[in-house]
Amino acid sequence: MKINYWRLLGSPRRYPVYTRDGFTVTLWTYYEPVTPHTSPADYAKALEQLHAGMRKVDVPSPRFTDRIAEAEDVVADPDLSPELADADRAFLSSRLGSLRRAIEDRGAVEQLLHGEPHPGNVLGTENGPLFIDLETCCRGPVEFDLAHVAEAVCAHYPNVDPGLLDECRQLVLAMVAAWRWDLGDQLPNGRRFGEEFLRSLREGPPWPTLDTVTRRLDGL
User: Fold this and answer.
1) Confidence band for 181, pLDDT divided at 50, 70 and 90
2) Are the C-beta atoms of 169 and 209 separated by less than 8 Å?
3) Distance of CA 50 to CAs 121, 139, 146, 177, Å?
4) Would you say which domain of life the source belongs to (predicted)?
5) In the chain, domain spans
6) Which CATH superfamily, name and number, covers 32-218?
7) 110 or 125, greater pLDDT
8) Of 51, 67, 87, which is closest to residue 10 (Cα–Cα)?
9) What is the pLDDT of residue 16?
10) What pTM did the predictor assign?
11) In the chain, which end has fewer C-beta atoms inside a 10 angstrom radius, N or C?
């Protein structure tokens, strides 16, 4: 089973297409697909360049903690997550809160981030990897973005704080677990993913990356 990462991490997104006088118009640019595989080194370089560019952008934006709050709302309200067991609800609530505090207490430098730079949001183009779906932008430490990518990519990204990256990986696992129990979740086998993310959190380190969990469930 192939999993689209954008569906794994959140709700389906719809892009506007307009029809006028018989013409169909969209403001999105089409890029001819090229080699589907992006090497970890190229992936890391592209993400580093994206971060460098985003540091120059000064626009109002949510903070990564707003993403945590969205997950906490799902966990806290049984009407939003009726299938989530009480023990799992308490566990997720506690983990989301403790990770928020731990990351904030580090006082790491924050900047504008992509928010979800996972493989499903990377296009291979003739000019190299290109990140899409920037509506998830938020402010936070770069390790929050890196928590969405493969371990091999992180190995090529400079000056990563390993402890902070570990905490951000746990946080992403906890947030995605919460969203999989949302009553309106539309991911096929979403509850199965929710159970796997909970199990990964309970098992402890080393914390798996999203691609590792996905491959595990795909039986690869």
Assistant:
1) very high
2) yes
3) 13, 14, 12, 27
4) Bacteria
5) 32-218
6) Aminoglycoside phosphotransferase (APH), C-terminal lobe (3.90.1200.10)
7) 110
8) 67
9) 61
10) 0.87
11) C
